[in-house]
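Task card 7
Instruction: Convert sequence to structure tokens.
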Amino acid sequence: MALLAFSSRLPRSLGGVTLGLSLGLLGGCDNYPATGQAITTGTYEAIATVTYTWQAEYARNFDRPQTIRQEQFASTTLVNRNGLRPEGAVTGPDDAGLWWPALPPRPSADELEERQRESNEKRTDPLLQKDVTYAITFDYDGQRRTLPTNPSVYREAVKAYADQQALELTYGPGQQSIGAARRIASFDR
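Output:
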């Protein structure tokens, strides 16, 4: 039986994952506060990249966290755009409105053993990681930008796209992310 862990964050980091079902707080894991200038755009694309990855942990002693290392195996990725069903989607949409690819092949016993570095090293059962990264691409003032964002901005952009509405986007710190989005009913393009 495969165990499933879910995380919703922008950095592609699987460190510190424990066995079991760990649910990230959908809004709280992405720290992209809306602190900057707000802009309005009628040309945008909401992007959610979803990934399944098999992972196992190896260590001589699991009681010493600093000695635990994680090994990643096969993965599959699918890019969601504007909430539309992407080619290659096998399941979805889920509770977050995301479509998912087929599961990657579970690592074989041989593959798991090949990753052992020492004969006395132990390992956990493979765990299926579920990762999501969010971004938004938009045109403003003659420039096209793609910036990281959070699930709530993605969902707001998906709804605006479905209703053919413009978006008011609020930058995060240093204009390096988008922290908030609000649909605009009428907008002069």
